[in-house]
Design goal:
The protein is an all-alpha fold. Helix content is 77%, strand content 0%. α2 packs antiparallel against α7, α2 packs parallel to α8 and α6 packs antiparallel against α7. The relative contact order is 0.21.
Length: 171
């Protein structure tokens, strides 16, 4: 364990609010958690309301699997990537992931009333894949833009951003 002095809660919050970089990473983590909340919370509730069998709704938990297996494609996203204009590789990946998520969520919105449960499952899997991919890129972006002293603080805010987005999604 490190011998350094532990920073208190108030000092930690003050530092987080005074840094634009930490704020940007925290907001991006929040945006990464919104689609996850859709797949984890809102979609099973919607399917239950629609009268889908509880066992089938339970199988929808498998659509979250891209979050467990994102380590498989994260090296590819780290090594290769587009460069859109002056955005750079990380921000270009973030833009692509957000466009992919937008199209997937719009597809879910368009097909949810008329589509078979299998189509909804595929769209939920695509949403989870896009969200997990966005999380990979946001983590890499955070390592690049944050100073060493800010990284611990940002890591502490990331799960909070994901959890807040999940709670907001279920409301």
């Amino acid at each position: 364990m490190a011998e350094g002095k532990r920073v208190g809660t108030i000092a930690s919050l003050k530092a987080a609010l005074s840094s634009r970089r930490i704020g940007a990473v925290t907001l991006q983590s929040f945006s990464s958690g919104l689609p996850l909340g859709l797949v984890w919370i809102a979609l099973p509730a919607f399917l239950t309301y629609r009268g889908v069998d509880i066992r089938t709704v339970g199988l929808f938990s498998l659509s979250q699997s891209p979050w467990s297996f994102k380590f498989l494609w994260s090296p590819l996203m780290d090594r290769f990537g587009p460069r859109i204009g002056r955005l750079g590789r990380r921000r270009s990946w973030i833009l692509i992931c957000q466009l992919f998520l937008m199209l997937s969520i719009l597809g879910l919105a368009g097909f949810s009333q008329t589509a078979d449960v299998g189509v909804i499952a595929i769209l939920a899997l695509l949403i989870a894949f896009g969200s997990a991919s966005q999380d990979i890129v946001i983590d890499a972006y955070a390592v690049e833009v944050l100073e060493r002293s800010e990284q611990g603080l940002a890591v502490g805010h990331e799960p909070e951003g994901l959890a807040d987005a999940d709670v907001g999604e279920g409301v």
